[in-house]
Design brief:
Layout: E1 13-18, E2 24-29, E3 33-40, E4 45-52, H1 53-62, H2 65-71, H3 79-96
Antiparallel strand pairs: 1-2, 3-4
Amino acid sequence: MSRACELTGKAVMSGNNVSHANNKTRRRFLPNLVNVTLISEALNQNVRLRISAAALRSVEHRGGLDAFLAKADVNELSQRARLLKKQIAKKADEAAA
């Protein structure tokens, strides 16, 4: 399981610890990943994802998982999220027709 958000692609970054004496040692900045269960209204099912806390706020701000995935860039999404986006788009097309 990689340390990357399944919705935003936010992943581990690297940088330096800098001491008061300006000594630099390498360190890693880990994303704040949480396991959440989100509800997809279009699919009428619960979806378990490992996303960052910032992505969770973005999902709530945009009005839920379906709305977030509709606007999301495919390049940032994980394989599971891409599959969900396709399924949700297919359901939306069926409902519109």
